[in-house]
Design brief:
The chain is of the alpha/beta class and 190 residues long. It has a single domain, classed as 3-Layer(aba) Sandwich (Rossmann fold), CATH 3.40.50.620. The chain contains 7 helices and 6 strands, in the order βαβαβαβααββαα. The chain has a 6-stranded parallel β-sheet with strand order 3-2-1-4-5-6, with helices on both faces. Strand 1, helix 1 and strand 2 form a beta-alpha-beta unit. The longest helix has 13 residues. The chain starts with a strand and ends in a 5-residue tail after the last helix. The structure holds adenosine-5'-triphosphate (ATP). The site of adenosine-5'-triphosphate has 16 residues, from helix 1, strand 4, helix 4 and helix 6.
Length: 190
Amino acid sequence: MRIGLFFGSFNPIHIGHLIIANFMATQTDLERVWFVVSPQNPLKPKKTLARDHDRLHLVRLGIGDNTLLRASDVEFQLPIPSYTIDTLAFLKEKHPEHEFVLIMGADNLGSLQLWKNYEQILAGYDIYVYKRPSYELGEFASHPRVRVFEAPPLDISATYIRDCIKAGKSVRYLVPETVWEYLESGSLYH
Ligand code: ATP
């Protein structure tokens, strides 16, 4: 199968992420989209990053019964910090039956030259990029392995959601109902 990989910390997952994933799974030639949840980097401050399994759980809750989407914890088993090129190589070896495509926003494409072995990523993988308001596509947009899509933009971030929760404001509808219920019932991000 042709599978799109959407990497992130998903701290927490929100409808901006899900809109992109569903767009890629239904309006491109990708057959499935996997959310690859990045582990907590022990070298980085842990203050605002929820535990790996909480974030993974929230991604699963957000996906619900959508069989086109999947949560992947593959990076939890890989050395930290996890570099995309290493995760791609691992997945390729583990799933020779699949073809993996990278999904990223224009914000990430613009700084691709900072990624470890980015030339190798570009040489070995298709990259599906979605436009984001106020981000230039940059030089890589015309690369033969890059395809640019117009997905409905939504200007929210996990930071905004965490800030709302901390301030006691409602995040209902910014995250899927199941995620909202989970967040309401616990102390995550308070
Ligand atoms: P934070 O605010 O904590 O940095 P985030 O909402 O940007 O989090 P990430 O987990 O970093 O979430 O996101 C994973 C991927 O989704 C990243 O490539 C990021 O650019 C992208 N993304 C984040 N928010 C949106 C959005 N509203 N629309 C489309 N893509 C998004």
